[in-house]
Write a structure and sequence with these properties.
With 329 residues, the chain is an alpha/beta fold. The chain has 13 helices and twelve strands. 36% of the residues lie in helices and 14% in strands. The chain is globular. The structure holds (2R)-2,3-dihydroxypropanoic acid. The site of (2R)-2,3-dihydroxypropanoic acid (DGY) has 6 residues, from loops.
């Protein structure tokens, strides 16, 4: 029977799926609700056949070495898998799976929360009220920028980017996007979205929402030059991965009012947040909550568990990101 390491307690129905499929004794669950210390992770992964992993676990050569040649699959409980060195896994024949689809709408909701929250200065306004600074209604008090009727720019038009674009219809927005490949024409029509090059996206977006995966091509793609190219009234929202944005450059742009505001759910070196960003009033900061609803986190855990169960039942795991390692490719 396959032995599975689960690196942190996750939703009970997912753990139940694993116990039912593999037997309770085959599940090695790190019981603390905290990131498993690296040494403990390397110790416990030894001899395992499968791992249920989280974004906090770095799955690299050291990890794979510690696991030994028996490891066959790492099921990540996230859609992003930049914590995993996939080529290294593929080279050793280890399958990698993720959890797409189940978090799309939840993450798009949060992106919209940041779009409105940053444009209308929610965080700053709440601090103002809680600090007892609100003395009167005033025509100029904490004015923000409009969202309705503006141009929404989307960098990375995958599932989540498209879900964000769908919501823009209700806000009467023009939607432009930049993506490696163009969407099929009927999808573009349904989303009322137009593909543009990056300079056009930067110059014309009133709201720029980031949804591209982190990779060599997107690392630091939004830096000082990009912020200078944006409108001074523009709002940047990032719910993708922190390193897509150069945080030092963003903080300088926000402080210099080169752009109006930002809403960030992800950071370059989580959980630490750039000190200069913390100085900015015009940024809403969230601790990586894109998929954080009870229902979605349960669906993500069940999806990761389903990938492990399918794999060890001799079926194709539904969400394999390196299918070349599976029999039949
Ligand atoms: C993901 O799934 O990649 C998110 O960042 C966490 O939900």
């Amino acid at each position: 029977m396959a032995r599975i390491l689960v690196t942190r307690p996750v939703a009970e129905p997912a753990l139940e799926m694993l116990r039912n499929a593999f037997g309770a004794d085959a599940i090695d669950l790190y019981e603390e609700d905290a990131i498993i210390p690296r040494e403990e992770l390397l110790r416990r992964v030894a001899g395992k056949d499968g791992v249920f992993a989280l974004l906090s676990e770095k799955v690299d050569a050291e990890f794979l070495e510690a696991a030994g040649p028996g490891l066959r699959i790492v099921a990540n409980m996230a859609v992003g898998y930049d914590n995993i060195t996939v080529p290294e896994c593929s080279q050793r024949g280890v399958a990698v799976t993720n959890t797409p689809d189940v978090l799309t709408e939840t993450t798009a909701d949060l992106a919209w929360g940041l779009i409105i929250g940053a444009s209308r200065r929610f965080a700053e306004a709440e601090r103002f009220l809680r600090n007892g600074e609100w003395k009167e209604w005033s025509p100029t008090l904490l004015c923000g920028v409009d969202v309705y009727g503006k141009t929404l720019g989307i960098l990375g038009m995958g599932r989540i980017g498209q879900a964000v674009a769908r919501r823009a219809t209700g806000f009467g927005m023009r939607v432009i996007y930049h993506n490696r490949s163009r969407l099929p024409e009927d999808t573009e029509r349904a989303l009322n979205a137009e593909r543009v090059d990056l300079p056009t996206l930067l110059a014309e977006s009133d709201i720029l929402s980031v949804h591209c995966p982190l990779g060599d091509a997107t690392h630091g793609i939004l830096g000082a030059e990009a912020f200078k190219a944006m409108k001074p009234t523009a709002v940047l929202v990032n719910t993708s991965r922190g390193p897509v944005v150069d945080e030092t450059a963003l903080a300088e742009a926000l402080l210099a009012k080169e752009i109006f505001a930002a809403g960030l759910d992800v950071f370059e070196r989580e959980p630490s947040v750039h000190a200069r960003l913390l100085e900015c009033d015009n940024v809403v900061l969230l601790p990586h909550l894109g998929s954080a609803t009870y229902a979605t986190r349960q669906r993500m855990a069940e999806t990761a568990a389903a990938n492990l169960v399918a794999f060890f039942s001799g079926k194709r795991p539904p969400n394999c990101v390196n299918p070349e390692v599976l029999q039949g490719g």
